[in-house]
Amino acid sequence: MTANDGEGTADPDRTLALLWRHTLGEQPGARGPKQKTTVDAVVANGIALADEEGLEAFSMRKVAERMGMGVMSLYTYVPGREDLIGLMVDQVTGEIPHPQLAGDLRSRLDTVARHLWAECRRHPWLLSVDTSRPALGPHISDRYEWELSAVEGIGLSDIDMDQMVTLVAGFVLSAARMARDMDQTQQRSGVSDAEWWAANAPVLEKVMDGSRYPLAGRVGQAVGEVYQAASNPQLAFEFGLARVLDGIMAYVAAGR
Asked: Which of 43, 69, 114, 163 is at 20 to 30 A from 155, Cα to Cα?
């Protein structure tokens, strides 16, 4: 794909240089005799657009329109849509300093998990980004170094260290997607979870016959009364994180 199709990805070397533009002391994305804006401004506008509309509707053309410039001019700063998203991810990864990792292993990993959870809640579009080949920019690299420091010095192999922080991050991302999906459902429907539950509870009480669904009926009723919704993402996050950390602590204690 090329820049002309509106969403292509160009030379990865140029993208990598853009990610490290402040360290390298130059902005290789800028071409032409006189630049009217900066790569930083393009990234900032991309983040603002994604925060407002999500990634499904995100395009280079919309970013250009937001900045009052032609889409082809935008390509003189950033090669394409996926490249820009990579720059945006790296930028938001570094927007809040990583908290100090203190206490025992459980406390350190809990801090790592909650920092990522808060980040995903601030920028739900992060959950739609393909991370199979992450943009290895300075902030993402700093994040990985910070995460690994939480499990350094406890006797794990390097591979186990990577797998441990991957496990924690994977759980957080899954829990955050459930929270995002509930938020989006409420926004699209205009109906809160409590309103939805109140409207559907009478029907569910009739069809969830106690003799046919003894467990689902009993548990579902308890869930509905407590959550006033089909689920509670915050509670699921808290419960799941505790169980993940339980497993990690047992794994380390066993000397694996």
From this structure: 114
